[in-house]
DNA sequence: TAGTGGTCTAGACCACCAC
DNA sequence: TGGTGGTCTAGACCACTAG
């Protein structure tokens, strides 16, 4: 492996190389990686160094390892990991898996806020998807998802949009969301939101502005979700 | 080191032993631990095994290490780590460090909800502290903190309550909060909350119900905080 | 049985810090 | 200069999986 002039520990260089290969599509979600020894030989480092990089990637949910089988690129489209970023729960703490209906898909220019959140400078075309999430046939979350067309070409023409957009991003665009940042506000539902969520006027709702980050560190999606927290809570554990 | 009948990897046994010593007060917040080799010798394992346990504890914010100096028990009363669990930010993303005023301290029996959240079965005496957090002389968060008297004996007689309760827990009671779980709701401020936060009637506020967990895994504090998110957001990153 | 990841050890060398 | 943690290597053995 080429050693950069600016010093980075070997195991971090191995880490970078693996991330690069996943980002380039050389290894795709669900693929198995070579064994520790094979990878170490190929990159010219020791098995222990490779292991350290691999374990770091496991800690970040980018890889999964199973003793006796091998090392795999995480499939974020698994039921379990699909809802890793979905933080709404019933008050008793039970997970909620909602249904999703697409309400509308529009293509337009990004607003100033969207440009800033998505770091857009040149191509300002974005897709706005409005979605209604329902649970037991009752509307629970109304959200607008903003995607740069440059990142997701043709996503506005997509006919079958799955329950989880993250699965679509991964399968069709090779984009793996590995981190999200949520900013939560309490607001009064406006007319559109009350109507969609079937709430009385002036209901308080939780507004969640989310930035989603790809494996390469770019913010590739920004969304605003409104949730009535009468029957649900946003639950998060910080360590 | 004694090896338990039920197999646990050596490095996890080392991990457990270190946690136990911190929990027992053998090493206190800010203390330095023996070097990797000294600890390895004492416990009868290799330096690499000790290192693995130590690094895991660093990942969990229980220890801190500095090259050339040593390994230290985290002081959660550091400015930096004190606010690790404080998730309110200005909309631009700047951290907010508020002032705190104690409004009242009461001792009473735990409610059913508090018993459940704090896993109380025998001694039901709890202390309720009402606190108002202000930023730039404006009230921003009103909260009620519930502490079991069995865990914090005499805390209701405390004269000097610092800005961060977690620092008090650590210094006086040897309790280190290592994990919190927040449940967020959007609600309409009631009379008490609007008055404390100086808000008009019917303002939406973010309600945060928090369970705080000690190093030994027990929930030792439960609180409810109300925040007006007009000028602040609750911000969290999930990986 | 062969191949994989998981644990554990021993030792070398480097970078940082304090005296 | 001596002691600390940080990186890197080499190799042994164990546990799990699959054919």
Characterization of this structure:
The structure is a homodimer of 239-residue chains. Chain A contains 7 helices and 11 strands. Chain A is α+β, with helices and mostly antiparallel strands and 239 residues long. Chain A has 2 domains: 10-73, Arc Repressor Mutant, subunit A (Orthogonal Bundle); 78-234, Chorismate lyase. In chain A, the strands form 3 sheets. A 6-stranded antiparallel β-sheet of chain A has the order 5-6-7-10-9-8. A 3-stranded antiparallel β-sheet of chain A has the order 1-3-2. A two-stranded antiparallel sheet of chain A has the order 4-11. In chain A, strand 2 (63-66) and strand 3 form a beta hairpin. In chain A, helix 1 crosses helix 3 and helix 2 (36-43) packs across helix 3 (47-59). The first copy, chain A, is globular and about 65 Å long. Chain A starts with 9 loop residues before the first helix and ends with a strand. The model of chain A is unreliable at 1-5 (pLDDT under 50). The A-B interface holds A 59-61, 84-85, 87, 89, 91, 178-188, 202, 204-207, 209, 227-229, 233-239 and B 59-61, 84-85, 87, 89, 91, 178-188, 202, 204-207, 209, 227-229, 233-239. The structure holds a DNA duplex (19 and 19 nucleotides).
């Amino acid at each position: 492996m080429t050693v950069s002039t600016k010093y980075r520990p070997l195991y971090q260089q191995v880490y970078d190389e693996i991330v690069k290969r996943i980002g380039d599509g050389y290894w795709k979600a669900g693929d198995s990686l070579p064994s520790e020894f094979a990878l170490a030989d190929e990159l010219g480092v020791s098995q222990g160094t490779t292991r350290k990089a691999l374990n770091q990637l496991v800690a970040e949910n980018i890889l999964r390892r199973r003793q006796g089988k091998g090392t795999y690129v995480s499939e974020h489209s698994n039921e379990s990991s699909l809802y890793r970023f979905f933080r709404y729960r019933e008050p008793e703490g039970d997970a909620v898996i909602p249904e999703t209906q697409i309400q509308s898909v529009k293509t337009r220019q990004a607003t100033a806020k969207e440009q800033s959140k998505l770091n857009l400078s040149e191509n300002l075309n974005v897709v706005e998807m409005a979605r209604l999430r329902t649970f037991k046939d009752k509307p629970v979350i109304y959200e607008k998802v903003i995607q740069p067309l440059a990142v997701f070409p043709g996503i506005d023409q997509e006919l079958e949009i799955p329950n989880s957009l993250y699965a679509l991003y991964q399968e069709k665009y090779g984009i793996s969301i590995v981190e999200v940042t949520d900013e939560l506000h309490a607001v009064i539902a406006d007319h559109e939101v009350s109507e969609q969520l079937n709430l009385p006027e002036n209901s308080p709702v939780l507004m969640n502005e989310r930035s989603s980050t790809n494996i390469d560190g770019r913010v590739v999606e920004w969304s605003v979700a409104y949730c009535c927290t009468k029957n649900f809570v946003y639950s998060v554990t910080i360590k």
